[in-house]
Write a structure and sequence with these properties.
Blueprint: H1 2-24, H2 38-46, H3 51-68, H4 72-93, H5 99-115, H6 117-120
Helix pairs in contact: 1-3, 1-5, 3-4, 4-5
Length: 133
Amino acid sequence: MKIAVVVVRTLLGLGFTVFGLNILFPFLPQPPMEAGSLTAQFFAVMVPTHWMAVVGLFQLVGGLLVLSGRAAPLGLALLAPVLVNILSFHILLENGHGVAAGLVFSVLEGFLVYSYRGYFAPMFTMNAVPGGK
């Protein structure tokens, strides 16, 4: 199990580190967008407002934290909302096209959340009080 966690942590961490860097410093080719499409309209707002830079920063930091191993739960917590947005984008704006990578990363994230479940268990309490236990 420990080997599987290291392999999955490495795959997820490297994936988000590379794609986060690509958002901040584009080096991978991007497919052209159809003019006037929902995707083009979405990026017409997200890129000039630097919103995508924030997303890229969260991907980069989350990926590096997952890669580090010591702060993997924090990295997973940062990457979870990013994954929700990746899946939402591909499902809602692209009618499911390109959703496979988001699904793969979601499965990897789910495996790691389960592996680190002891760190996440307190979040699911029904008796939360301010100040901790």
